[in-house]
Automatic annotation (TrEMBL), chains A, B:
Entry protein name: Acyl-ACP thioesterase
Family annotation (Pfam families): Acyl-ACP_TE (PF01643), Acyl-ACP_TE_C (PF20791)
Family classification: Belongs to the acyl-ACP thioesterase family.
Domain of life: Bacteria
Length: 242, 242
């Protein structure tokens, strides 16, 4: 049975907004980067999978930040895999400051796809082959919530450009989150309050597509739905400030 | 007289495009981050200046990459200040891989502004106060070139949103560069050839403004001009593949 792995980060100037606190996408970026590094180090990273024409894709993600640390704050991201299902693998994270105080956590669920067919692969063999990578510790918070119905009260359009796409040739997770945040009032984004974000990915969005980002404000929460070229929802998300 | 300072980086999964090589904005981001960290460590960072309601702003930048390293490549950014003028301070950079081979370099010129009036401050006192921070080594390549006339053959519009702005409350340098790159054919961006980018900033662009990005393709080069709300040019740049 494995142990949690720990990686050190610091809130750099490019990670903060004008309140000098780390943005949600910068902390989310560190979380996803940690997933990549940890899988790479353990021999089942995207680079190893690419040899078989496979890749990991993020299916669902929930992140919670009790606060957003200020510029130059050192922090540690601990990560561990708690389970493999047939379709999804669950990777967990906690974020702690230098004093050891936990200020954030995340639960992510990943599918493995075939890069040719872009369809999901049965993960049972991964669970067998990498059983020693599983850590016997429960996820640090509720798993990502499904968001079923969004009734947008505002929409924005965005054509997918080179800077939006990642190594998997689809829109980068943090770019989706930025598109959503950018529809909210700045006062909402810069308030100092605990925040939880749930996002789930239903379809990939690709270079050259035109995205429609729908936003429904509900008090201190917002629901989002992104679709590409007028098709059914590709991404749904909710953000809630406590 | 000071020595060059060195900072270590690694090309992370979020830094690469689908060719699995580091993007120009990700390498450029490491360069600017190094400037911030080094100034911070030496006591004249943005955080120290903010106490007097001052800040550093980038005025001009030239970057050259002989190649763009692949995912998980370790590299070192060395930085040094070569001179202070009355208005601009010159900070230089070289990028080297683990074998010590230089694959990139940059020359940046910075002004100090008053955050209230947004106007430049005489830097002579900084040169006096921080003379011991100057390194007696010439810039590693030509200083940033002025780009005088751009005749756009294509234009794009972009409204400045929350994710575009940085701690100085104006559009982030790498976002400008992304806006420009996103107007070019993807084949041009992913070719394996040495590239040089020159950018200069004439005016700040702020939250809520609508930017017009003009692009003029000239063979293996491109010229750009960005203006806000129909006013005169705010940013001009050129990108040239050898």
């Amino acid at each position: 049975m494995a142990e949690k792995s720990r990686y050190n980060y610091r809130v750099e100037p490019q990670d903060v907004d004008f309140t000098l606190r780390a943005t949600i996408p910068s902390l989310g970026g560190s979380i996803l980067n940690t997933a990549g590094i940890d899988a790479h180090g353990k021999g089942f990273g995207v680079d190893a999978l690419n040899a078989d024409n496979h890749s990991w894709v993020l299916s669902r993600m929930a992140v919670e930040f009790d606060c957003q640390p200020t510029q130059y704050t050192d922090y540690t991201v601990a990560t561990w895999i708690s389970d493999y299902g047939r379709v999804l693998s669950t990777r967990n994270f906690t974020l702690t400051d230098a004093a050891g105080r936990e200020f954030g956590r995340a639960v992510t669920q990943w599918a493995m796809i075939d890069l040719q067919s872009r369809s999901a692969i049965d993960l049972s063999w991964v669970g067998d082959a990498h059983a020693d990578a599983i850590v016997d510790a429960a996820p640090p918070t509720d798993k990502p919530r499904k968001i079923r119905a969004v009734s947008p009260t505002a929409t924005a359009e965005h054509r997918v450009v080179y800077s939006d796409i990642d190594f998997n040739r689809h829109v980068n997770t943090m770019r989706y989150i930025e598109m959503m945040l950018d529809m909210l009032p700045v006062d909402m984004l810069t308030q100092e309050a605990p925040v939880r974000l749930d996002i789930h990915f239903l379809k990939e969005c690709r270079f050259g597509q035109t995205l429609t980002v729908g936003c429904e404000l509900r008090g201190r929460s917002a629901l989002f739905e992104i679709s590409a070229d007028g098709a059914a929802a590709a991404v749904r998300a909710s953000i809630e400030w406590k």
